[in-house]
Amino acid sequence: MTGSALDALVSAGLDHRVIRHGPVRSLAEAAAARGVEIPDVVKTIVVRRGDDDFLFVLVPGDRVISWPKLRALLGVSRLSMPDAGEAKAATGYERGTITPYGSLKPWPVIADERLRGREITLGAGEHGVAVAVDADAAMSGLDGTYADVTDPEPAK
């Protein structure tokens, strides 16, 4: 785990468990490697509201962002996802490793309400490493907000 993510978790006093599992190619592989169900593999999505204005959206592994719900919650008409380079510049992390912990800036955090009361796993700043945390404790420490901001993953 990169120092900044681990340091941030320790500094926050958040109980956590580090899971080192090596490379994975899908959410299903990540869930199996972490010993959790797919909904507990939480995707940390970076969303852009405007120039140098981002937020983190925590999405259960079996769901996707509902852009209409998120726009309504934030009271904006337009949101976008930055490309990989812009996401790294905003957070300090590569896609697939992004976590609100130790980000270059403490962007706001919104978590889908379905995470409430669960143990979840998040990226930990480097590929093949995750951290398991209590979602409610994490959201409290991040001053995050729970809201209904996702839809079921579309059938493939």
Structure in words:
By secondary structure, the chain is an alpha/beta fold. The chain is built from five helices and nine strands. The strands form three sheets. The chain has a four-stranded mixed β-sheet with strand order 2-3-5-8, with helices on one face. Strands 1-7-6 form a three-stranded antiparallel β-sheet. It has a two-stranded antiparallel sheet with strand order 4-9. A hairpin with a 5-residue loop joins strand 6 and strand 7. The chain is globular. The mean pLDDT is 93.
- The best one-word shape is globular
Number of DSSP E strands: 9
User: Helical segment tally?
Assistant: 5
- Structural class of the helices, strands and pairings? alpha/beta
The helicity comes to 25-40%
Radius of gyration: 14 Å
The strands making up the biggest β-sheet line up spatially as 2-3-5-8
Overall pLDDT confidence: 93
The percent range for strand residues is 25-35%
Gap from first CA to last CA: 33 Å
Low-confidence stretches at least 5 residues in length (pLDDT < 50)? none
| SSE order | HEHEEEHHEEEHEE
Largest sheet: 4 strands, mixed
GO molecular function: aminoacyl-tRNA deacylase activity
Protein name: YbaK/aminoacyl-tRNA synthetase-associated domain-containing protein
InterPro entries: YbaK/aa-tRNA-synt-asso_dom_sf, YbaK/aa-tRNA-synth-assoc-dom
